[in-house]
Amino acid sequence: MSQVILAARNRANAGSGAARQIRRQGRIPAVLYGRSGKALSIDLDALEFVNSVKHISESTIVKVDVDGKPYDAFVKDTQRNILDGNILHVDFYEVESGVALRAHVSIHIHGNPIGVREGGILEFPLHEIEVECLPKDLPERIDVDVSGLKVNQSLHVRDLQLAEGIRVISGVDQVVALVKFAKAETASATADEAAAAGPAAAPAAAEGEAKAKE
Known about the structure:
Elements: E1 5-10, H1 16-24, E2 27-33, E3 39-45, H2 46-52, E4 61-66, E5 69-80, E6 87-94, E7 101-110, H3 114-117, E8 121-123, E9 128-133, E10 141-145, E11 154-156, E12 167-168, E13 175-180, H4 182-213
């Protein structure tokens, strides 16, 4: 996927009144936060932004061209109108080439596990992990093939196949996906319930017999 490029311009006026005027022009007020802590007020075309970022994730680096000066950045936050869903404001966070960064990368699983075909249930408890790497090495997402998972097998963070230069920050023992045998669990639960009820049922029956003799 080619890098998303967003054309922006410097925004001189701040405040809610200026922001409303910008929105009436079909643009979105935004702030580009630099790594040094400086913030640059900008605005960009609303339609272009919406169409360009439909399929990007939180770990996708976009290029923001501010009056001809390019910045590589993440889309860190978008504020929306709760009534119509229109975007009111965008926050970008600049990344610096050659400097390692930390980011959360989403996990996407695919494939039909062997264990599911045998009657098991696939569970997917972990949806993202935190990694550290150079901006050029940051993946937009991590694809995981779970086709080989059998019943009672699991896939952990340590099993993920990541490119060289990517260091995992998240706990390596976290479970990404697993297949559980639902039928076995149900049968086991039923047996446990019967065993638990057995000792309690016996005194009750004996008490009933005693009352009958009386």
